[in-house]
Amino acid sequence: MSEFDKILVIDCQVAGISGDMFLGALIDLGADVNKITSAIKSLEKQAYGYKNIKIDIKQVMRREFKATKIDVTAESASRKTGSELIDIVEKSAKHLELSEKARQFASKVIRTLVNSEAKLHASDSSETHLHEVGFVDTIAEIVGAAVALDNLQMFNAKIYATPVSVGGGLFTFSHGTVCSPAPATLEILASKNFPMMGGPIESELTTPTGASILVNLADEVSRFYPEITPLKVGYGAGNKDFKEMPNVLRITVGKPVDNWLLTDEIVILETNVDDVTGEIIGYLVDRLLQEGAKDVNIIPMFTKKNRPGQIIKIVADQKDAKRLLRVVIEETGTLGVRMYPCKRYILSRELFSVTVQINNAKEIVKVKVAKDRRGKIVHIKPEYDEMKRLADKTGKPLREITELVKLRAREILLRE
Question: Taking the model in full, what pTM does it have?
Answer without folding.
Answer: 0.67
